[in-house]
Amino acid sequence: MKFWRLPLDSEVHSIPVGRVQIIENRCKGCGFCIEFCPNACLKESKRFNAKGYHPPELIFQAEDCVNCGLCSLICPEFAIFTELQEAKKITEDDIRKVTTRYSRKDKRFAKR
Ligand code: SF4
Ligand code: SF4
Fold it and tell me: Which residue has the CA at smallest separation from atom 4 of ligand 2?
């Protein structure tokens, strides 16, 4: 049984898609961007930067970033920012994704 549907005004709204840019050598590995990204887009990478920290990297498809800008606001080292890549049409898939987002985030925390 389906408990979701496309919003009736989905034609007039769009979802921003951000392109995440990470300046790895500025990162001090605090993990704030990873912890607070509302879409759980980021995880700690296995790579070391020049300072010996693990910078963040994208977990899922790049299109999960909604260009909210929280990661760049919260980063104490100005090491991460996003640019608007496109404003895409809302699809049924997007609605389905919203319903699984929190369980997906839980899985990420369970890996720690
Ligand atoms: S802009 Fe928002 S959604 Fe995109 S990576 Fe940063 S915090 Fe996450
Ligand atoms: S908030 Fe900035 S310094 Fe902290 S892990 Fe993310 S990119 Fe690195």
Answer: 30
